Amino acid sequence: MTSYNELWNQVLHAIQESHYFKDDIFHTWIENKTSLFNIDNQTAYVSFKTMITHQLLSQENNKQLFESTLSELYGEDLSIQYFDYKEANQLMPSIQVQKKTEEIAQSSLNPDYTFENFVQGYCNQEAYAACLSCCTQIKHTFNPIMIYGNSGLGKTHLLHAIGNYLKKERPEVKVFYAYSGQLVTILLDAMKTKNVYGNTVEQVKEQLSNYDYFLIDDVQNLKQSSSQEVFFTVYNQLIARNAQIVMTSDMHPNELSGLQNRLISRFSSGLITNISKPEFDTSKAILRKKLEGNEESILIQDNVLDYLASKFSDDVRNLEGSLNKLIFNATIENPEVIDLDFAQRILMKEPVIINQDELTMKQIKKAVVNFYGFTYKDLEGKSRQKNIMNARQVFVYLSRELLHKAYVAIGQELGNRDHTTILSSYERARQKMENDKAFSMAVDKVKATLKQ
Ligand SMILES: Nc1ncnc2c1ncn2[C@@H]1O[C@H](COP(=O)(O)OP(=O)(O)OP(=O)(O)O)[C@@H](O)[C@H]1O
After folding, report:
1. What atom in ligand 1 is closest to the CA of residue 157?
2. Region Domain IV, binds dsDNA: what ranges (predicted)?
3. CA of 118 to the centre of ligand 1 (A)
4. 373 is in an annotated binding site
5. For residue 214, is it within any domain?
6. Mean per-residue pLDDT over the chain, rounded
7. Residue 381 annotated as binding site
8. ipTM over 0.95
9. Total domain count for the chain?
10. Cα(37)–Cα(24) distance, rounded to whole angstroms?
């Protein structure tokens, strides 16, 4: 079904194309100054933002033009009632909330974030496969899908890829995509208006539960406890209707503080999949992908790609950024080819300052997994592989030395381990600091990345 927003845009477009109004009048007083917010009982409710707009639209001929164009596009005779937009907000808060929800749901997906443009590697293949396969399944086997990983590793890209794929290949399915912050706004708005005009919360719940795909980015921000209540119901209804839910988060669901346990345990019931930083070859493939189509105009030596891939692949955003910086500077300096000297000169490292006062166990954990190239799952899991055990000890040691955290708290952060395990892990780490050079170097290196 066409939304009111789309319908009104079609009306405006048709009227603009007819050149009934002079272009400057149309742009200044009509476009972006009006909005259709409800149709009920053969009446269309349109809000206006300025008095001049109102006067213009209320003139008999103009009113008729809008009514006939709207009626034709809607397929039914309609008359229009105009409202000041502030009045309209108060008049129909529930409709405003509904409208906002619709607008967010339709918020544009980045057309560049497609499956075709996503480079697969060991670091992301499970997440990629899960996202692609959920687009074609009718009965969803893994529900919800939760993708977690550090910033800039492609989580949002995959979520948009699902949306873009469905838009093209299965236009009949209803897709909701939002940042969790937008979702919280919708839910809080609904709650604010619930006792004024009908039960807006119920309407929004119903509206949200009606989607076939529900894509929520950065779910760790869904912290407002009152909105979690509403989300919980919507979540259950969506699952009961076999709608696919896909969420991203910057940490494993078990680490999501501020979210209710019942939500976390539901998040964990489908497929939890991690994206880690790209391996060297994947980083290079990403760089090549970004250069695709421009190979003729951007001459870049292969060892420059090696350099970028080895230096900036902790965050694909940085990787892309470093490449863009080189390309941009090449347009200024016009070298014959971007070689290693040029790249190193342009990309001289600028220090990133982390405020030590804000150092948390999560940051230490992130630094440890980045350093060792493991996932959070590995670190928290049961594996007794030597490297993973070392990584755990580094984490425990730094959490004690830098943050003076209790063994219990460290244990909770490390996959709910018992405090006696953490105590012995710390003792072992202390001994190793004295007699195991490799271990003490690892500790220093991780510590150094925290100071950057
Ligand atoms: N495997 C990949 N192939 C191609 N591009 C990628 C890949 N991974 C990440 N990118 C690109 O890196 C940039 C950052 O990715 P994205 O925004 O999806 O990260 P994110 O994990 O959602 O980060 P955040 O948690 O900060 O929101 C985007 O431009 C995205 O296209």
Report:
1. 18
2. 331-452
3. 9
4. no
5. yes
6. 86
7. no
8. yes
9. 4
10. 25
Q: Do 65 and 58 touch, CB atoms closer than 8 A?
A: no
For residue 315, what are the domain limits? 280-346
Note the pLDDT of residue 199: 58
CA–CA separation, 99 and 80 (whole Å): 18
Kindly list the distances between the CA atom of residue 35 and the CA atoms of 2, 22, 59, 102, 230, in Å, as whole numbers in the listed order: 15, 20, 18, 14, 28
Locate the ligand 1 atom nearest the alpha carbon of residue 117 and give its number. Answer: 4
- pLDDT value at residue 15: 93
Closest ligand 1 atom to 275 CA: 21
- Whether residue 110 is contained in a domain is answered as no
Distance in Å, CA 276 to ligand 1 centroid: 11
Same domain, 256 and 295: no
Pocket test for ligand 1, best of 220, 317, 362 (most atoms within 8 A of CB): 317
| C-alpha distance from residue 326 to each of 22, 112, 333, 350, 409 (Å) | 46, 21, 10, 15, 44
Same domain, 129 and 270: yes
% of the chain at pLDDT higher than 70: 90
Ligand 1 surroundings by CB, under 6 angstroms: 113, 117-119, 124, 151-157, 250, 286, 289, 316-317, 320
Residue minimizing CA distance to atom 18 of ligand 1: 154
Q: Which ligand 1 atom is at minimum distance from the Cα of 159?
A: 18
Q: Whose CA is nearest to atom 9 of ligand 1?
A: 154
Residue 168: partners with Cβ closer than 8 Å, 6 or more residues away? none
CATH of the domain at 29: 3.30.300.180
Residue 196: strand, helix, or coil = coil
Give, for ligand 1, the residue of 124, 150, 157, 319 to mutate: max count of ligand atoms closer than 8 Å to Cβ.
157
What is the maximum span of the chain, computed from C-alpha positions, in angstroms? 91
Query: Residues 158-174: what's their mean pLDDT?
Result: 92
| pLDDT tens string 205-261 | 888 898 999 999 988 888 777 788 888 999 999 999 999 999 999 888 877 767 888
pLDDT digits over 72-116, tens only?
999 999 999 888 877 766 565 566 666 666 666 666 788 899 999
